[in-house]
Design goal:
Order of helices and strands: HEEEEEEEEE
Low-confidence stretches: 1-33, 142-150
Distance between the termini: 22 Å
Shape: elongated
Largest sheet: 4 strands, antiparallel
Number of helices: 1
Strand order of the largest sheet: 4-3-8-9
Number of domains: 1
Length: about 170
């Protein structure tokens, strides 16, 4: 069945739910509704004014399985209008440049540079109920800072929020 036929069969103008692997870090929780046969590819910009979606495109395939581990330092969380989490995706830290250079002792020395203005790509489930994308710093990188979220643990720090790409719905 094609995506268009699935849309008509569901009666809601949405593709019928697609089956997906049970343990995929980039799949939405069951709280947010069914998976769809499409996902949203976003280019997100961060600068001194915060996060904003620069480009959004609906992709007519299910959300690909992540090759990233769940323990990455950032998470993007899609929320509905009531602030309920619909989906959460692990992300590498944005704006971080890493390099390794020979040290004075002959070993390698890791160097990390943090940029203030940067853009990154994120794939999120296509969710009609989505209204906002909230970005979190999680894990040991966020320990000691305020702004904790119950869903991300005591050490999570909110980095910012941007509207979900409503122009692609």
């Amino acid at each position: 069945m094609t995506a268009a036929q699935a849309c008509q069969a569901s009666g809601h103008g949405e593709p019928a739910p697609a089956s997906a692997p049970a343990a995929v870090s980039q799949t939405p929780s069951t709280d947010g509704g069914a998976l769809t046969a499409r996902h949203v590819l976003l280019v997100v910009q961060h600068d001194s004014s915060g996060f904003r979606v620069r480009r959004a495109q609906v992709v007519a395939t299910p959300l690909p399985q992540s090759r990233f581990p769940d323990a990455l330092p950032w998470r993007a969380e899609v929320e509905d209008s009531a602030g309920k989490s619909l989906a959460s995706v692990a992300l590498p830290a944005g704006g971080e440049l890493r390099g390794e250079f020979p040290g004075p002792d002959g070993g390698m020395q890791a160097v990390h540079f943090r940029k203030d203005d940067f853009a990154f790509v994120v794939r999120l489930p296509y969710l009609e109920q989505g209204t906002a994308i909230r970005f979190w710093q999680t894990g040991s990188a966020a320990v000691g800072a305020g702004g904790a979220s119950a869903s991300h643990g005591a050490g999570a720090v909110e980095l910012g929020v941007t509207p979900y790409a409503t122009d692609v719905k």
